[in-house]
Design a protein that fits this description.
The chain is α/β, with parallel strands linked by helices. The chain contains 16 helices and twelve strands. Strand 10 and strand 11 form a beta hairpin.
């Protein structure tokens, strides 16, 4: 039976790959709605036509898109993705980048849609809210690291987990000792993955791995003390689970997101030939190394924020979004990114541990974090 999909962030990397999976498997999937920011209207229009969608959600360029898609309902405005996420379907793929993806995640869960979650910020900013809404098997991970852990845990007992081990490519600077002069172009040149600019820079600072540690805590209910991260430059082993008897189960495949995306869309089944397997006729060398916490303090900072709980992870994420944009805009140095995030967490520590009761609480603490981070950017750039 064909599964009806809603794809949020359809013009981004995750959305584009998901639609390639749909195109290759028309007997398995159909698309009923798409949403995107609207900054690439030509691509969104082409996607809507190719997949004959009934609804499109967009934040900008709505008139242009509406004119190009007669007969298609075009929902516009800042809450378009949230409205689209609530359309009844089999699976909502949330491929939005940033904490703006939280409201659509909650809307999809409340509508009893299964959520294939590529928006890690939903759990970082509002993990307790998301988990309180999600039923069993309603929230499935799309990040390759969390998909790997999810696959390794199938049929296993939680009580027998010793630790979760997330792998990190190390980004473009894993072997560079002096990071003070890093340019935006260098930070965007990821050696393994092709991703959007925010995720790519987060990978360069290893901030992305910090976010993923918090995400793993919420997804799998494992204490932060049992979640680690290691550098694995080849990005073939996507993550591992170590068990109490000393055994480690790893999930491996070439660095391609189509495997994790397709599994989340078609679970509990796998999509044949979703991605190319490892070529065992060739020789392979895979390396693992501990993270240099002096050069990459973001992972320890994320772990601290996770331990504080409450709004601390939301502060961590929101202030990072501001700092990354400031770096892209040439206002601060690469090494200032984590410093600004750390300063924001320290400045708001007294309110950080407060429990987030609803979406408005999350929005309020994120607003405080962004304001604090903007002030730090001005001081650094002065």
């Amino acid at each position: 039976m064909t599964r009806e999909l809603v794809i949020l962030g359809s013009t981004g990397s995750i959305g584009v790959q998901a639609l390639e999976i749909v195109e290759a498997n028309p007997a398995l999937f159909s698309v009923v709605a798409l949403s995107a920011a609207g900054s690439n209207p030509d691509l969104l229009i082409a996607q809507a036509k190719k997949f004959k969608v009934k609804v499109v959600g967009v934040a900008k360029n709505a008139d242009l898109i509406r004119q190009a898609l007669p007969g298609v309902e075009v929902i516009d405005g800042p809450h378009a993705s949230t409205e689209v996420a609530a359309i009844s379907c089999d699976v909502v793929l949330n491929g939005i980048t940033g904490s703006i993806g939280l409201a659509p995640t909650l809307a999809a869960l409340d509508a009893d849609n299964r959520v294939a979650l590529a928006n890690k910020e939903s759990l970082v900013a509002g993990g307790d809210l998301v988990l309180s809404r999600a039923k069993e098997d309603q929230l499935l991970p799309v990040d390759s690291e969390h998909s790997a852990i999810w696959q390794a845990l199938i049929g296993e007992k939680k009580s027998e987990i010793s630790k979760l081990i997330l792998t990190a490519s190390g980004g473009p600077f894993r072997d560079r000792t002096d990071l003070s002069g890093v340019t935006v172009q260098e930070a965007l040149a990821h050696p393994t993955w092709v991703m959007g600019p925010v995720v790519t820079i987060n990978s360069a600072t290893l901030m992305n791995k910090g976010l993923e540690i918090i995400e793993a805590h919420y997804l799998f209910g494992v204490p932060y003390s049992q979640i680690e991260a290691v550098i694995h430059p080849q990005s073939v082993i996507h993550s591992m689970v170590e068990f109490v008897d000393g055994s480690t189960i790893a999930q491996g495949s070439p660095p391609n997101m189509k495997g994790p995306i397709s599994l989340a869309l078609h679970y509990p089944h796998r999509v044949p030939a979703a991605t190319a397997p490892i070529d065992w006729t060739q020789s392979h060398t895979w390396n693992f190394a501990p993270i240099d916490t002096d050069r990459f303090p973001s992972v320890a900072l994320a772990r601290d924020c996770g331990a504080i709980g409450g709004g601390a992870p939301a502060i961590f994420n929101a202030s990072n979004e501001v700092a990354v944009q400031a770096f892209v805009d040439g206002l601060i140095k690469f090494t200032d990114i984590v410093s600004i995030v750390s300063a924001s967490v320290d400045a708001l520590r007294s309110s950080a541990a407060s429990k987030l009761r609803d979406l408005s609480d999350v929005s309020a603490i994120e607003e405080d974090a962004r304001r604090t981070a903007h002030e730090s950017v001005k001081k650094v750039g002065a």
